[in-house]
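To fix ideas, we close by showing one paired sequence and structure record:
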Amino acid sequence: MPTAILAIIHAGLAAAWVGGMAYSLFVVQPKLKRYFGPDAAGREALTTVIASGNRWKVVGLIVVIALSGVGLLVLGGGRWWIHAVKGALLLGATGIFWYVSWKHWPARVFATAAEVPVLQRRLIVLATTMLGLAGLAFALGVVATRL
């Protein structure tokens, strides 16, 4: 029973993180772009409001995903290689999240109007990469249940 509860927590939070990133990247960001049109300053202002206060929530989410993954490995053993790959993917996604949160985002907040478009394009690449890494880790977790 503890393994099942831990698996639900692990998979549920991983799905929430992947789903939240996908929703932001493929739904919210394009709608903001269409809604604000040429008003880049308005778009940046609302994007800042939406992003504000989420950093530590995501850090907590990542920590619980990692710890529950370690717990599942200890309780269930087996197939260490797939857990190692998932861990490396999570570490990569976490590194990108760290960069975006503590380097990219402050630079974007204080950027000039000319710098913002470059930073917006860079964020799309970073967010897409982070989503790909986390999504692949999630998919490997599903595959691991079938091996």
In short: The chain has a mean pLDDT of 92. DSSP finds five helices and no strands in the chain. The two ends are 21 Å apart (CA to CA).
